Amino acid sequence: MKQKILSSKIEQKLNDLIGQELYAMYAYKAMANWCQNEGFLRAHPFFIEESSDEKSHAEILEQYLLDMGCVPSLEKIDKPQSSFKTLYDVVYEAYDMEVALGEKYAEIALECVKEDALTLTKIQEFIKIQTESIGFFGDICSAIKGLSNSKFEQLMLEKILVKG
């Protein structure tokens, strides 16, 4: 049995982050399904890839916990929103979710500054990822301003979204 290196507080925060990443994975899958059903055929694989990225993030955190002598706990994952009115709503939901995740990573980073430099180094990798995601979806949200709910304008947005 490995020696447990992390404090219980940091371990729990990491487990919470794993749950948040898995929720994001689930949410992006729901967004992809909605896009497919509504005819946003380019957005579907885009959100499937986002879902895959979130799963990967959870797995990296799980491995970190294992490496530090802890056993990841599987937190309950809430059911994500799966019905949207427009592609714009999907983008806003993605943006809000990425901001919330970014805030969670910032919160644990502050905690780690005081007591856990090893975990801080790992969390900084994720803060960079979150900052980029927030910037990307924030730019897409800016592009939405002033657009109508017409299918044509949503399809034009889809082109911007998928090209990144």
Count of beta strands: 0
Biggest sheet layout: none
Tell me the helix content: over 70%
Low-confidence stretches: none
Q: What is the helix tally?
A: 5
Q: Which structural class fits the helix and strand makeup?
A: mainly alpha
Strand content: under 5%
Question: What is the mean pLDDT?
Answer: 94
**Overall geometry:** elongated
The N- to C-terminal Cα distance equals: 45 Å
Write down the secondary-structure element order. Answer: HHHHH
Radius of gyration: 17 Å
Give the helices and strands, then pairings.
Layout: H1 8-38, H2 43-67, H3 87-115, H4 117-144, H5 151-163
Helix pairs in contact: 1-2, 1-3, 3-4
Could you characterize what this model shows?
With 164 residues, the chain is mostly helical. The protein has 5 helices and no strands. Helix 1 packs antiparallel against helix 2 (43-67). The chain is elongated. It starts with 7 loop residues before the first helix and ends with a helix. The relative contact order is 0.16.
